[in-house]
TrEMBL record:
<dbReference type="GO" id="GO:0061630">
    <property type="term" value="F:ubiquitin protein ligase activity"/>
</dbReference>
<keyword id="KW-0833">Ubl conjugation pathway</keyword>
<dbReference type="InterPro" id="IPR011513">
    <property type="entry name" value="Nse1"/>
</dbReference>
<keyword id="KW-0479">Metal-binding</keyword>
<keyword id="KW-0539">Nucleus</keyword>
<keyword id="KW-0233">DNA recombination</keyword>
<dbReference type="InterPro" id="IPR036388">
    <property type="entry name" value="WH-like_DNA-bd_sf"/>
</dbReference>
<dbReference type="Pfam" id="PF07574">
    <property type="entry name" value="SMC_Nse1"/>
</dbReference>
<dbReference type="GO" id="GO:0000724">
    <property type="term" value="P:double-strand break repair via homologous recombination"/>
</dbReference>
<dbReference type="GO" id="GO:0005634">
    <property type="term" value="C:nucleus"/>
</dbReference>
<comment type="subunit">
    <text>Component of the Smc5-Smc6 complex.</text>
</comment>
<comment type="function">
    <text>Acts in a DNA repair pathway for removal of UV-induced DNA damage that is distinct from classical nucleotide excision repair and in repair of ionizing radiation damage. Functions in homologous recombination repair of DNA double strand breaks and in recovery of stalled replication forks.</text>
</comment>
<keyword id="KW-0862">Zinc</keyword>
<keyword id="KW-0227">DNA damage</keyword>
<dbReference type="GO" id="GO:0030915">
    <property type="term" value="C:Smc5-Smc6 complex"/>
</dbReference>
<keyword id="KW-0863">Zinc-finger</keyword>
<protein>
    <recommendedName>
        <fullName>Non-structural maintenance of chromosomes element 1 homolog</fullName>
        <ecNumber>2.3.2.27</ecNumber>
    </recommendedName>
</protein>
């Protein structure tokens, strides 16, 4: 399947952002169509937004990428997020966190998901204890765990309850 200039331009716009609202995604698509039509007035761009979006998702699949719909927890707004669907070693290089820190993050997420009464939360001390109980090469000392939790929150990986 040939990639159109509209699709290329749209993908560039999406890749420069991590997350876009559904409204912005559709506005970006319209802007891409308009920009390409200025250079190529005879281009056929008669697909609907949904058809276009499905095609873009198909183009991303062989690259190990996808655009997933989600709801922003703080605002309730719908958004589209570009995600890596492959967890290989190369993908892990895309973060500044070490393998130990990623393991700690996974443990924290597991604590949140498995929280009693579907509270979907975990206390800081519980998280720190979990990190300190990991096997030796992956053990996260309490002081480092505290800094890591702060870093996860600052980078938007986690959110701290009030």
């Amino acid at each position: 399947m040939a990639v159109t200039d509209i699709e290329r331009l749209f993908l560039q716009a999406i890749m420069t952002r991590r997350i876009v609202s559904e409204k912005l995604a559709e506005e970006l698509w319209r802007a891409c169509v308009e920009a390409v039509r200025k250079v190529q007035p005879n281009i056929e761009a008669e697909q609907s937004w949904n058809e276009f979006f499905s095609n873009v998702k198909r183009l991303l699949d062989p690259l190990g990428l996808d655009i997933k719909g989600t709801t922003i927890e703080d605002t309730g707004h719908k958004a589209q997020v570009l995600v890596n669907t492959v967890g290989d070693e190369i993908a892990q290089l895309a973060t500044s966190y070490t393998a130990t820190e990623i393991t700690f993050f996974k443990q924290v997420v597991e604590l949140i998901v498995m929280a009693p009464n579907e509270s979907y939360s975990a206390g800081e001390i519980t998280c720190l204890k979990e990190g300190n109980q990991l096997p030796d090469p992956m053990k996260v000392p309490l002081r480092h765990g505290t800094k890591l939790l702060g870093s996860f929150i600052a980078n938007g990986w986690l959110r701290k309850s009030k």
